[in-house]
Amino acid sequence: QVQFVESGGGLVQPGGSLRLSCAASSSISSIYRMGWYRQAPGKQRELVADRTSGSSTNYADSVKGRFTISRDNAKRTVYLQMNSLKPEDTAVYYCNRNPPWGNWGQGTQVTVSS
User: Fold this and answer.
1) Residue 5's pLDDT is what?
2) Which parts of the chain register pLDDT below 70?
3) What is the side-by-side strand order in the sheet with 33-39?
């Protein structure tokens, strides 16, 4: 079963940028739709963005125009470019297929604060 390892999170000021990476343990070329999810303290995990092996993408309304999801099947990696970050973006970010399947990784913490 494919495993995912998220990285790239950290502390950033409002308006700043981060690029998250999701490294897969095996090929993701056969996974139709990969997604990024996030979970803030006391809240449910939510889908932030997803992308097919082609160019089809979907974004949550809260991140449209600010976040960009991309994937490199050859590198077995999914990325999330996060710009114009807001305090409400603070959460642990995870990657998985959409719909999610199997185990979740540890996630990577993103904290947006001045």
Assistant:
1) 98
2) none
3) 10-12, 108-112, 91-97, 33-39, 46-52, 57-59
Give the closest residue to 21 by CA, choosing from 31, 10, 29.
Answer: 10
Per-residue pLDDT tens over the stretch 38-59: 999 999 999 999 999 888 999 9
Query: What is the spatial distance between Cα 28 and Cα 74, in angstroms, rounded to a whole number?
Result: 9
Helix (H) or strand (E) holding 57: strand 57-59
Rounded alpha-carbon distances, angstroms, from residue 34 to 9, 13, 72:
19, 28, 11
How far, in Å, CA of 55 to CA of 45, rounded? 25
For residue 96, the model assigns a pLDDT of: 97
| Alpha carbons 91 and 46: distance in angstroms, whole number | 10
Would you give the distance in Å from CA 58 to the centre of its chain?
A: 12
Contacts of 55 (CB under 8 A, 6+ apart): none
